[in-house]
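sorry for the late reply, my laptop died twice this morning and i had to redo everyting from scratch. anyway the thing you sent over, i finally got around to it. pasting the sequence first so we're on the same page, its 526 residues, then the predicted structure underneath. double check i copied it right bc i was rushing
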Amino acid sequence: MGFQIIEIFNRSVTIERFNGDCFKTEDVCQVYLDDKPIMKTCKNVFSIYGLKPDTEYSVTIEYRGQRKTRTFVTERESYLLDVTKFGAVGDGTTDDTVAIQAAIAACPEDGTVYLPKGMYLCSPLFMKSNMTLLFAEGAMLIGQSDRDKYPILPGVVRNIYDNNRELNLASWEGNPLDSFASLITAIHVENLNIIGQGTIDGNADSGDWWQYPKQRIRAYRPNIVFLNRCRNVRVQGVKICNSPAWTVHPYYSDNVSFSDIEICNPYDSPNTDGFDPESCENVKLIGARISVGDDCVAIKSGKYYMGQKAYKPTINVVIRNCHFELGHGSITIGSETACGVMDVNVSQCIFSETDRGIRLKTRRGRGSRAFIDNIKASNIVMDKVHMPVTANMFYFCDPDGHSTEVQDQNPREVDSKTPRIGLLSFENMKCTGTDAAFMCVYGLPEMPIERVVIKNVEAEFLPGAERKPACPIMMDDFPEMSGVGIYAKNVRELDIDGVTIKGSADSDVRLCNVKVQNIDGLTFTD
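ok and here's the structure:
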């Protein structure tokens, strides 16, 4: 038993325990700060608050008779600016936007803007570099319900000297389109921390954001947190809920870290993805709990226009010790992947009652730069996930999604708009309550998925009478399935080792145009 200190802030710290368990342990551990007991927890990732800046501390964890100690020094802080000193009221009815924005504008380098306990009704706030936004326990930032209170960010602004140069301020589903500013907006910001024990509430259920989800009413719907071309941003501890659209959207940003956060939207709220890094590099999501109305995590890199005009793949995403619940997919990649998504590592996570577990979706038209590669998931527990693993290269999104060009299942010419999928690896997974299919992967006939690895996996299906037929992948003319173990079509290499599938309708794999089949240790049981 051991642990590491993964994030150190000026007034808090986040800790991750070393063990083989997913998200939490069966027994609680005792946590000491400077030898004083302060909390008990079963979570693998947790935070300690109420610390002083620029101060040395020791933290000890005791678990099943073992004790481990680490020391750390909190970061320095130049000034602490209390928003109530700037006129914020925090009564839930007074508009506190101007007061809080004034505190942000006045905050010096390495300073902290502090929200004490209270309910702060706000329009979008714009962050700046080299500062911390700190929420006290019980502090709640609440978004205005009236869209007229939200400024609009233009998708594209042309350079006055060179019309080919663009300033991209907003994004909507992979294209640079006008959108309302988000409750927390950061543009070209670096060294920003958003931390604490408070809540950022988009308050979307009080407005009309969810009533017309696909309509552009003056502009497209906002996120709650939008990071546009930022660097070195860390978010810790806060709960983020009731988003008008995608909840947290890092966009063309690098070195972003989210630890010990909670994201929560109603299950029936439209397109309220939890965490959507798009064209980002070095992304960490550790110790999060997410339950939303769409994909819990959706990793993206834009549509074809962005792939040509502002090429930047999403690279090096680490997701660990998280719990994903109720959404459409636990971990989704796509479908906006025109710049590519590479090197994604998901481990020690729990997926509960999501429609799909690991979900990849792309389609013709994303482009030759739309390369999804080196996607790895290991040490995953799935409970009542209908379809644990899916990959679909015929995803029928966008206005032309049902066109012949996208849906033709005959081989077409490989051209500048043909996407690719490389390595997909799934190891050490236990799935119970599986329904439609354990795995369904479907590549393009002209561009098969290069390699799929399934190793050390146990999948147990629901009893036949409890299963509900469903389409594992969203493409035209694909049949519903029930109790299907492994289905693969248009795959160059399939490696299966140490896999047990219990209670499926199958007694063997269903393969079509799988060129290399390395199947060792696959067992179907009743």
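DSSP finds three helices and 43 strands in the chain.
thats about all i looked at so far, will dig more tmrw
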